[in-house]
Amino acid sequence: MKLPVIKHLTAFIEENDQDFVLETIETLEALTEVPSLKDEELDVIGELISNMYGAIEVDKMIKEGTPKKEALNNFMQRVLGSIDK
């Protein structure tokens, strides 16, 4: 996951609507079923999907009252913590 991408997507959600990102995730998930995709292409799609889910999670924290910067930092700490384990 890339913090700058999640930050940008979070701003996009704030300016527009979470539904755009959710629909994009659904589209990308459908693309993963194309049998001719190479592993590298699947990796890129997976990275995009995980960043979008991350932005949705950060947006949820912000809507619950967590300041944006704190929500981004908390999310990334959780991600890094889960990687270390």
Distance between the termini: 16 Å
Q: Count of helices?
A: 4
| Helical coverage, percent range | over 70%
Main sheet overview: none
Mean pLDDT: 93
Oligomer: single chain
Please explain how this structure is put together.
- This protein has 85 residues and is mainly alpha-helical.
- It is 81% helix and 0% strand.
- The chain has four helices and no strands.
- Helix 1 crosses helix 2, helix 1 packs across helix 3 (39-63) and helix 3 packs across helix 4 (68-84).
- The longest helix is centred in the middle third of the chain and has 25 residues, at 39-63.
- The radius of gyration is 14 Å and the shape is globular.
Task: Describe the secondary structure blueprint for this structure.
Layout: H1 3-15, H2 18-31, H3 39-63, H4 68-84
Summed up:
The protein is 81% helix and 0% strand. The protein is mainly α and 85 residues long.
Give the tags.
81% helix; mainly alpha; 85 residues
